[in-house]
Amino acid sequence: MIAVMMLPAGLCSAGEIHVSTTGDDTNPGTESKPLATLSSAQKHVRAAIRSGLKEPLQIVIGGGTYFMNQPLALTPEDSGTAKNPVVWRAAKGAIVVLSGGRAISGTWEKGEEGVWSVDVPDGWNFRQLFIDGQRATRARFPNADESNPFLYATAGGMNHAVIDPKLIKPSWGGAPDAQINVVAQWKFFNQWNTVTGVDAAKGRIDFADSERHGKITPGNWFWIEGVKEELDQPGEWYLDRKQGRLYYMPEAGKDPNKLTIIAPRLNVIVDAKGDVEKKTHVEHVHFKGLQFRHTTFTLGHIEARVHTDGAMRLENANHFLIEDCHFENIGGYALWLHLDSRRNVINRNTVLDSGAGGVLFTGARLSYMDDSKLYTPGTIAATVFPILNHITRNTVKHCGKLRYYGGGVHLDSRPASMAMEPGNYIGHNHFADLSRNGIFAFRNQGGNIVEYNHIQDAMQTTVDGACIHFATMNHLNAPNYILNNWLYDIWGFEQKPNGKPKRHLANGVFLDWDSSNTTVNSNYV
Q1: Is the pLDDT of residue 310 over 80?
Q2: Which residues contact 253 (CB under 8 A, 6 or more apart)?
Q3: Longest Cα–Cα distance in the chain
Q4: Which of 172, 177, 277, 398 has a CA-to-CA distance to 81 between 20 and 30 Å?
Q5: From edge to edge, which strands make up the β-sheet containing 137-138?
Q6: What is the DSSP letter of 235?
Q7: Which residue, among 133, 152, 150, 178, has the nearest Cα to 398 in the 3D structure?
Q8: DSSP β-bridge partners for residue 266
């Protein structure tokens, strides 16, 4: 007896599955009877793939905002073919938003001193809030609009900072979810540390174990946020997660019940993952014309350079096309390519107001001086890194809102065994208003071509970097080429206790850490 796989009833002959905010998941997914969710559409996609794709399969998503309860998790069974890819796209002329957040839907009540509050679901913890499309300020000290909006360490260590005792407040130590955002030690990265206690008499602030990447030394600058007592000016908010209550001080005359207020829940919206040890891949999937918004950022990253938050994650994914998409109000990178991800094209996308940056490439080890910082264990995982990908015609602006070691494209450490293999093509992009580098390539990177990029206003929050920064740490890498790029306004930023920044240690092109076999030609700096 031969089993025959049937297409979902009503799947139109044109190879389209339709999704709409007014749809129903009991519908067949036709244009006249669309589905309601991407997860339901995925079930129809898999049935169509099992039946054999005779033409490209289009998942046509109607206009509106889709609040995702869970990521769209793609596995090898969601793959298309070179001739017949699976295409997730916006309907013609439609604005489609895939949101990793949830709208604040309760009724706001006005309290004392201009502070409003509303109940939120139990257990929901978030550190970002987006109000009418803008990232709002979490209650902090000093306030962001002060002429010198930082605290400055007078001493410290890996687990604490010391400041002028006259500035410290006991309430910081009692806040259950207070963090400091500190530029530590060498001043080329920041880290988020959760406060565990304060000694007001000594001016000491103690930290939890996570993200101890550098010592706190005299002059390191930071602020503290997530303390209810610091909710003291319009535009700030605070979440009491134990009580399940959100507090917000709107601008004068504003009623939060009339504002669109969204808080993130998901760290990733599309998660495509093959099995590196089994050598399986997700392949030939396209995303076109979609918007990705409202993702979280996580704490406890194992490496100061590498921020493992991404709105779209490709792990062991080949032949993806991500085109004409828009990423905004996200907690980390827009796109994260991990392990054996090859021949993907990221073209004509826009990234605005990201927590970290545009595109991140990583291997199994987020290594610096050694290979101790293991992110993905496995024998095969240790031997692969994303190569042969094209990053073209993208715009990345206003990045590094949360993680300063970000930029347009970040190529992290790859295995030494791959140093002589091909790299990636990065061309014809526009990167502007960057917390750190425009393009960064780290340990054992070779075979990369970086050309015809327009990079401006880089190094806004750190020192010791560049518009294009290569630190290959290897004399035996395949040739790299840095050609015909337009690079300008590269600042370097070290905040001084007098409130004035010092501009230094910034470059147009920076060949760092024994970078060799690299051609730098016809660039404008």
Answers
A1: yes
A2: none
A3: 83
A4: 277
A5: 109-110, 116-119, 245-248, 236-240, 137-138
A6: T
A7: 133
A8: none
Q: Are residues 374 and 350 in contact, defined by beta-carbon separation less than 8 angstroms?
A: no
Contact 153, 161 (CB under 8 A): yes
Q: Note whether 446 and 420 are within 8 A (CB).
A: yes
Q: Which of 476, 480, 487 is nearest to 448 (CA)?
A: 480
Cross-strand partners of 155 = 162
**Distances from the Cα of 255 to the Cα of 107, 115, 166, 175, 245, angstroms:** 11, 11, 36, 27, 17
Q: How far is 458 from 506, CA to CA, in rounded Å?
A: 9
Half-sphere exposure of residue 181: CA atoms within 13 angstroms, side-chain side: 20
**pLDDT tens digits, 432-466:** 999 999 999 999 999 999 999 999 999 999 999 99
- The confidence band for 234, taking pLDDT boundaries of 50, 70 and 90, is very high
SS3 content of the chain, % helix, strand, coil (to 5): 10, 40, 55
Is pLDDT above 80 for 9? no
Q: Is 112 helix (H, G, I), strand (E, B) or coil?
A: helix
Q: How much is the pLDDT for 6?
A: 39
Handedness of CA 140, 306, 388, 285 (dihedral sign): negative
pLDDT at 122 over 80: yes
Instruction: State how far the Cα of 248 lies from the Cα of 232, in Å rounded to an integer.
Output: 10
Give the count of beta carbons closer than 10 Å to the beta carbon of residue 142: 15
The pLDDT of residue 2 is above 90:
no
User: What pLDDT does residue 14 have?
Assistant: 57
**Cα separation values, 309 from 123, 268, 271, 324, 340, Å:** 21, 7, 11, 21, 18
Distance CA 227, CA 46 (A): 47
Of 287, 288, 284, 381, the closest CA to residue 342 belongs to 284
What is the percentage of the chain residues whose pLDDT exceeds 90? 95
d(CA 488, CA 466): 10
The one-character DSSP state at 478 is P
* Closest to 474 measured CA to CA, from 447, 507, 456: 447
Number of H-type helices and E-type strands within the chain:
2, 50
Q: What is the DSSP letter of 51?
A: H
Task: Quote the CA–CA distance of 40 and 460 in Å, as a whole number.
Answer: 43
